[in-house]
Amino acid sequence: MKVLSVGWNTFHETGKYTCATVEYAGLLSYSMFKRSGIRVFGGVRKITSPVAATVCWPYEFIRDKTGSIFSNREHGEKIEGLTKQLVEIEKRLAQIEKHGVIRVTEEGAAQMRKRKLREDKVFVLKGILEETKALKTKE
Amino acid sequence: MVRTKKVLNIGIDLGTSRSVIACDNGMRTFVPSYVGYPKDAVSRKMVGKDIVFGDEAIRYRLALDLYRPFDKGQLKYTDVGDNDPEENAKAKRVARELLKHLVGLATEEEEDMEGMTIRGVLGAPALASKKNKRNLLDVADGVLDDTMIVSEPFAVAYGLDLFNSALIIDIGAGTVDLCRMSGTIPTEKDQITTLNAGDHIDKVFLDLIKEKYEDVDFTVAMIKRFKEENAFISKQDEKVFIELPVRGKPVSYDVTKELKAACMTIVPEIVEGVKKLVASFDPEFQRGLKRNVILAGGGSQMVGLRKQIEDYMKQELGYGRVTCVEEPLYAGANGALKLCKDMPDEYWDELKSANKKDQTRESHETVTSIASKQKV
Known about the structure:
heterodimer, A: mainly alpha, 4 helices, B: alpha/beta, Nucleotidyltransferase, domain 5, 2 domains, 17 strands, 44% helix
């Protein structure tokens, strides 16, 4: 068994034991409350759920029968279409977030390549070509 | 005539710390420039691959022979000082694997690869030697169908469409490249490369922590990660704490001063470079140059760096306006991609035919030398 040292250490250890006791007591009472709560809630639910179902039944029946009068099939389809579009937009956004650049079609890319370049850019590109060619030529 | 052949353009920035690609098929990503090979059969089984890249390589580093092919912005063992042909060849092999991996990432979503030409523009440090640039071209040989090489800060400028009166500062892990744009391709006079960059900050930060907290156990990777998340040089009141293990137990340390001091070490060379490039520019256009100082690269994300350079310019040069690019990490690769896409097809064809001629000449020379030897 570990013998407690005198002075500060004893005070320190006592403090730690006190904290642990309080913490343990808290946990114990919490678990007791929780368990008893579960028991009580379970019992109440068992008693009330059949009563609630019986009370709600006529209302549910009326809602099912009359609901179609107020809702519009066209609206439903439109909402479905919009939902699909939103999903599509979300997918594209995720793609942009991941890659940062919008996917360009092959024709679009070809058109972009065909775009006429400014004269200064052509000059610069020619310079880079010449530099690379010079590098590739072995001395 | 419009070409029907499929072309994939890639802008590549093979960096000391991270390698970044941007492609015109929408793919854009980066990989830490680490390549690992399993040490033995056990590690091979654990890793499940013969070669591992990036974050995965760092995660399994204890079971791997870990390589970082680039140092100070160039392929290792290239320069005269540390010229070691064997090690250089190894670095080349590793770099090629890294490039292959990057190209693999770029093409993994491509459904039809048949007949596709892969063109790439590679970024090189501003004042990279011819040998270093050739090395990079050798690395790309066989991985990309056509390759061109361009100075990294120039690629940043090209991406931003800044050809005139602009000064690009590209802060990487191995080098800080400064490039003055004056409406033409920058020459040696227009560019400055300094070697005190991100890695230097890591080293200084590590030394300062070691000096202050002797009992602490840590690795460069830990320090690097922490620096990337917290680097600053501004006067902020908030303290920066790092959690480091002491004999296995994590302990929190205040490293505010050390981190700031380490980050500050790269500033003098940058501002000196800015001063040099501005002072040697045509006096009539100096104001325009001072108005257009652009910060790019991972190091430009350091909190307070922009203000620090601006303040210095105001003090020393009378005026200065510094802006950071929107995507510091991708700026080089984006510019290289733009350049790759803009490059006319005729130029690519010209490069290809020049290569062929060169190869034919080489093979002819080999044949004649063998023949002459046989004669002797």
